[in-house]
Specification:
Blueprint: H1 2-7, H2 15-20, E1 27-32, E2 38-43, H3 51-57, E3 64-69, H4 76-87, E4 93-98, H5 105-119, E5 129-131, H6 140-153, E6 164-173, E7 177-182, E8 188-190, E9 194-198, E10 202-211, E11 214-216, E12 218-220, E13 225-229, E14 242-244, E15 252-261, E16 269-270, E17 273-279, E18 282-290, E19 295-296, E20 301-312, E21 319-323, E22 330-340, H7 349-361, H8 365-374, H9 383-390, H10 394-406, E23 410-412, E24 418-420, H11 421-441, E25 448-449, H12 450-457, H13 461-473, E26 477-480, E27 483-486, H14 495-511, H15 521-525, H16 529-541, E28 545-547, E29 553-555, H17 556-573, E30 576-577, H18 578-585, H19 589-602, E31 605-608, E32 611-614
Parallel strand pairs: 3-4, 4-5
Antiparallel strand pairs: 1-2, 6-7, 6-14, 7-13, 8-12, 9-10, 9-14, 10-11, 10-13, 15-20, 15-22, 16-19, 17-18, 17-21, 18-20, 21-22, 23-24, 25-27, 26-27, 28-29, 30-32, 31-32
Helix pairs in contact: 8-9, 8-10, 9-10, 11-12, 11-13, 14-16, 18-19
C-alpha cells in the first residue's frame, strides 16, 4: 500500500499478493523526484517466510525505508531485516511507521521509542522516523519531501567496471522474447552488445533496454533495468543467474569471504556448519569452512570458504548473507573476497594472508589490479588477461599497468606480456630451488642443463628465460655452456678425484686431434669406468671438453682452434669440403665429420650439398 501511495503504481503483481494484501515477491515501481528524475523503488517482502526474496531485492539498493506497521510494532523479522541490511552494506535510510490511523497516538509514541531502541548502534541510528497513513494521507507529503532530500544527497553509482547484473525476474513477452530484469552492480550495457547468462554459459545479443520502465539505449549500474536478449530461451534462465559481459565471470562452488558472526547469537559457530548463502539474487546451500579459526564466538569475524552444492556467480567485494537452513535464521555475512575452483586448506598462512590482503585492496581500483597480478602465479600475462582477472575495463587496466611499470613493480617481456615483481620472485625462487635440489643430489656434477631445469622449475619458456637471466645478472646463478649452477656452489672433489679430473683433461689437451675413446680411459688412468663417466660429465659441464657424435671427445681449446681456422677459410673462400677441412687440420675423417656437424649445430656453419659455408657471413 505504501509503495502505491508513493508512486501511484501497485508493486504487488501476483494475484496471491493482491488477494492476501501481503508482499510475497519483489515489486518494482518508479518514484518521480521533484526535479523530474526517476528513481526505482523495490518493494521487498516483510514476512519471515519470504526473507530470501527480501535479500534478493536488497541487491543494489542505495537507500532503505524500513517499514513498520504501528498496529504490529517490531516483529522478529524486523530485527532480521535490519541485520541483513547492515550485512549487505547499506548505510543510509529512514524508518516509516505506517497504519498510524489504526492505533491511538500514545501507542504510536511507544512504538517510536521501541524503534529508536532497535536501531541504536546501527546505520539507522539517528535516521528520521516518519509516522504515516496510506489510508488518510497523513505524513505522506513529509515522507515524499524527506525521500527527495535524502535521494539527492545520495552519491550516484560510479558506473565503472565490467557489466554484471544479478537477475531478479525473467519472463517472455510476445514479439520480444526473453526479458531479464535486475539492478546492475557494475558497468554499463548498450543495445547491440553481447551478454552472457551465467552459470548457463550462453550468450545473446541485446535487442532492447529499459530503465525504470522507459526505453533507453544504455543502462548503468544502479538503474532498475530490463534487458531484452535474443538467442536465449527464457525457460533456461532463473532468478539468481547473472547477466554479464562475456568472458569475465565464471560460476564457482567455492567462495572465499570475510565473515561476521552476529553478536546476538548464543552458540559458537562450528566448522562445516550447513548454511544457505544469499549473494546478489542467488541462494545456494553449502557448508561454511572456517579457514583461520577453530570456531567463531558471537560477534567475531573470520576468513571462511563457503562450499556450495550448486555453482554461484559472485565478484570480489560483493555483500552476502548467511542463514541456517533450519531453523531459518540469519547468522551473519560480509564481503566476498574471491571465488575459486579449489578447496582451501584450514590454517594455511599463505592463503589467509592472501585473502586478508584482498580484503584490504577491495574498493581501490589500482590496488585491486595490482593484487590480482601479484597473486596470478608465476606466469606471464597480457593486458586482456589482467583485465579479466581484475574484472576491470581495458582503459582502466592499461592505466594501472602503466603506473605499475613506472613504479618498477612489474617486469615486461619483449613480447609485451608482463609479471608482477612478487610473482617474478616466485619464478626465480623455483629455479634456484630446482638447481639447489640438483646440487644436493649430484654433488660431483657442476650443474643442471637448461632442458632439465626448465622441466623441474615448472614455469613457461618466456618466464624461464627472463627469470634465469635475472638470477645470472644478480650474481645468484652462473650459466655457462648450457649448464646452470648456483654461484655459491663448488664441486668438492677429494684429492684422488681432483687428480683424476686433472689427468683426464690433460690427456685430451695433449692428444689434440688424436684423442682416445671413452673406453680407453680406464686403462690409461687406472680408474674404474663409473669414475671416468663422472669425471667426463664434470669436465663437459665445466666447459673443459666436448662430447661429439661418433663417441669423439675433444678438448675445448682444440675445438675452439678448429673453429677459428674454419671461419678464416670460409671468410676467404666462401665454402669448404670435408676433405679440404681434414687436410687443413691434418687429421682423419673420424674427427672431421663430428666436428663439422657440431659447428652446424652451433649455428656457425650450414651444409649445402657437399660443402659448408658460414651461416652468418660476417660472423667472426
Amino acid at each position: 500500500t505504501l509503495g502505491k501511495t508513493l508512486t501511484g503504481i501497485d508493486p504487488d503483481r501476483l494475484p496471491e499478493e493482491k488477494e492476501r494484501g501481503l508482499t510475497i515477491d519483489l515489486g518494482f515501481a518508479p518514484f518521480i523526484l521533484d526535479d523530474g528524475r526517476r528513481v526505482g523503488i523495490v518493494d521487498v517482502p516483510g514476512h519471515e517466510r519470504f526473507v530470501k526474496n527480501m535479500v534478493a531485492g536488497a541487491t543494489g539498493i542505495d537507500l532503505v525505508m524500513l517499514v513498520i506497521a504501528a498496529d504490529d510494532g517490531i516483529m522478529p523479522q524486523t530485527r532480521e531485516h535490519l541485520n541483513i541490511m547492515s550485512l549487505l552494506g547499506i548505510r543510509r535510510g529512514l524508518v516509516v511507521l505506517t497504519k498510524i490511523d489504526m492505533v491511538e497516538r500514545e501507542f504510536v509514541d511507544l512504538v517510536t521509542e521501541d524503534i529508536r531502541e532497535l536501531v541504536r548502534g546501527t546505520f539507522l541510528e539517528g535516521a528520521p522516523i516518519l509516522p504515516v497513513s496510506s489510508t488518510t494521507g497523513a505524513g505522506i507529503d513529509v515522507l515524499k519531501k524527506t525521500l527527495n532530500t535524502m535521494i539527492l544527497e545520495t552519491s550516484p553509482h560510479r558506473g565503472g567496471g565490467i557489466f554484471r547484473m544479478p537477475v531478479q525476474r525473467v519472463f517472455s513477452a510476445r514479439g520480444f522474447g526473453t526479458i531479464v530484469t535486475g539492478i546492475p552492480v557494475s558497468g554499463s550495457l548498450r543495445i547491440g552488445d553481447t551478454v552472457e547468462i551465467l552459470p548457463l554459459g550462453k550468450t545473446g545479443r541485446v535487442r532492447g533496454l529499459q530503465a525504470y520502465k522507459s526505453d533507453v539505449a544504455e543502462i548503468r549500474a544502479g538503474h532498475s533495468s530490463a534487458v531484452n536478449i535474443a538467442d536465449i530461451d527464457h525457460a533456461q534462465v532463473k532468478r539468481g543467474d547473472v547477466a554479464a559481459a562475456p568472458g569475465y565471470y565464471e560460476a564457482s562452488r567455492f567462495v572465499e569471504c570475510r565473515f561476521r558472526y552476529l553478536p546476538e547469537l548464543k552458540k559458537k559457530l562450528r566448522d562445516r556448519t550447513p548454511v544457505r548463502i544469499h549473494a546478489g539474487t542467488a541462494e545456494a546451500v553449502g557448508l561454511i569452512v572456517l579457514l583461520d579459526k577453530k570456531a567463531l564466538e558471537p560477534g567475531e569475524e573470520g576468513i571462511v570458504q563457503i562450499r556450495t552444492e550448486e555453482p554461484v556467480v559472485v565478484g570480489a567485494g560483493d555483500a552476502y548473507v548467511l542463514r541456517l537452513p533450519s531453523p531459518a535464521v540469519t547468522i551473519g555475512g560480509g564481503r566476498v573476497l574471491a571465488s575459486s575452483n579449489v578447496k582451501r586448506r584450514r590454517f594455511y598462512e599463505e592463503t589467509n594472508a592472501m585473502l586478508a590482503e584482498c580484503a584490504e585492496s577491495l574498493g581501490r581500483g589500482g590496488d585491486q589490479i595490482e593484487f590480482v597480478l601479484k597473486h596470478a602465479g608465476p606466469r606471464m600475462i597480457d593486458q586482456r588477461t589482467a583485465a579479466i582477472l581484475a574484472k576491470t575495463p581495458t582503459a582502466e587496466t592499461e592505466a594501472a599497468i602503466r603506473a605499475l611499470q613506472t613504479a618498477g613493480k612489474i617486469i615486461t617481456h619483449p613480447s609485451g606480456k608482463f609479471i608482477h615483481e612478487t610473482s617474478f620472485a616466485v619464478a626465480k625462487r623455483r629455479i634456484a630451488e630446482a638447481v639447489g635440489r640438483f646440487h644436493a643430489a649430484n654433488p660431483l656434477r657442476l650443474g643442471i642443463d637448461h632442458t632439465s631445469l626448465h622441466q623441474q622449475a615448472g614455469i613457461e619458456s618466456d618466464l624461464f628465460t627472463l627469470a634465469l637471466g635475472s638470477l645470472v645478472a644478480a650474481g645468484e646463478a652462473i650459466d655457462e655452456h648450457g649448464i646452470v649452477r648456483l654461484a655459491s656452489f663448488k664441486v668438492n672433489l677429494d684429492d684422488r678425484d681432483a687428480e683424476l679430473a686433472a689427468g683426464v683433461e690433460r690427456i685430451f689437451r695433449e692428444t689434440k686431434l688424436q684423442t682416445p675413446r671413452r673406453e680407453d680411459l680406464p686403462a690409461m688412468t687406472k680408474a674404474r669406468p663409473e669414475k671416468i663417466d663422472r669425471v667426463l660429465k664434470l669436465l663437459v659441464e665445466m666447459g673443459k671438453i666436448a662430447l661429439l657424435k661418433e663417441g669423439v671427445i675433444l678438448h675445448r681449446e682444440t675445438l675452439d682452434e678448429a673453429r677459428r681456422k674454419l671461419i678464416d677459410v670460409l671468410q676467404r673462400d666462401g665454402t669448404i669440403e670435408a676433405g679440404k677441412f681434414r687436410e687443413l687440420l691434418g687429421t682423419s675423417r673420424k674427427y672431421i665429420i663430428p666436428m663439422l656437424e657440431h659447428f652446424d649445430s652451433e649455428g656457425v656453419t650450414v651444409r649445402d650439398g657437399n660443402v659448408r659455408k658460414l651461416k652468418q657471413p660476417c660472423r667472426k
